[in-house]
Design a protein that fits this description.
Helix 2 runs parallel beside helix 4 and helix 9 runs parallel beside helix 11. The protein is about 35% helix and about 20% strand. The radius of gyration is 19 Å and the shape is globular. It is α/β, with parallel strands linked by helices and about 280 residues long. The chain has twelve helices and seven strands. The chain folds into two domains: about 80 residues, no CATH class; about 180 residues, Vaccinia Virus protein VP39 (Rossmann fold, 3-Layer(aba) Sandwich). Strand 6 and strand 7 form a beta hairpin.
Length: about 280
């Protein structure tokens, strides 16, 4: 790793008071961080919000979230990774929302489980989960090469061990022998119906594993429509878990699906079909 780059504006980030990230901002300064005020790099909300979810973040982990944010904001200037670039909003809408997935997982899975993050985009929820639970192993999957270029950069820059990145459609990669029914956990935050997301995630998960979907609070009708799809794909609803996240308007729901039998070989169907014609 190269030497730390110095800049006069670093005086804004050499903060040693409680609630602030201590020390220098890391190499690869982005405009958002260089022009930040002290308030914009406070980590108190992140740490407190994580604690409310039952997660204790160390100072070192909080610093890595700031570095992740810096890289995300810098790359976002040329790659459409997120519409949320404000630090305070990112803490709630990206980081804490991602970390809420921990509520659906056992201590054993949080310690050493292997996950696939389907439609990872800017790395959510996979990278925040890895930053908080270093023993986890994961694969970040996205169909857009520019996004997976960022994901590969983030994995390298943040020195995330046991993490890989794959470019491709879930409908295609789920049929690869090295990806199919391999993972303990599949995550997805994509905006799609539960039935469609189940078809894109369950084929990756081993029998006995789980799928965790981040959804809005009121999804009773959507879950009802997904019953046939879950049964067809070898899954069943374990629970829908309400989650309240500091700084986020409206509650969220974690949809937790258990894999009880192998997914038939024909699923997922060809690219686009799960979303266009969800199983009914």
């Amino acid at each position: 790793m190269g030497a730390v780059m110095y800049h006069p504006v670093n005086s804004l980030v050499r903060l040693h008071r409680q609630g602030y990230v201590k020390g220098e901002i890391i190499p690869g300064h982005c405009t958002a961080i260089l022009m930040a005020t002290a308030a914009e790099i406070r980590t108190g909300n992140l740490v407190a919000g994580a604690e409310a979810l039952g997660i204790v973040l160390t100072d070192a982990q909080a610093r890595r979230f700031v570095r992740y944010y810096a890289e995300l904001a810098r790359w976002n200037e040329r790659v459409n990774l997120t519409a949320i670039t404000d630090w305070d909003a990112a803490q709630s809408l990206h980081f804490l929302d991602s970390l809420s997935a921990a509520r659906a997982l056992s201590p054993e899975l949080l310690a050493s489980g292997e996950f696939v993050d389907v439609g990872s985009g800017g790395g959510f929820p996979g990278i925040p989960m890895k930053l908080a639970f270093d023993g986890m192993r994961g694969t970040l999957l996205d169909s857009t090469a520019k996004k997976t270029a960022f994901l590969s950069h983030a994995v390298e820059t943040l020195e995330l061990r046991d993490m890989s990145v794959r470019t491709g459609r879930a409908e295609t990669l789920a049929h690869d022998a090295d990806m199919r029914e391999r993972f303990d956990i599949a995550f997805a935050r994509a905006v799609a119906e539960v039935a469609a997301l189940a078809e894109l995630t369950l084929p990756f998960v081993r029998v006995g594993g789980v799928v965790v979907l981040h959804k809005k609070a009121d999804i009773a009708a959507e879950l009802s429509r997904a019953e046939t799809a879950l049964d067809t794909l070898g899954g069943s609803l374990r629970e829908s878990l309400p989650v309240s996240i500091s700084g986020m308007l409206g509650d969220r729901t974690l949809v937790v699906i258990e894999k009880h039998s192998r997914t038939p070989a024909r699923y997922p169907r060809r690219p686009g079909m799960p979303a266009k014609r969800p199983l009914r």
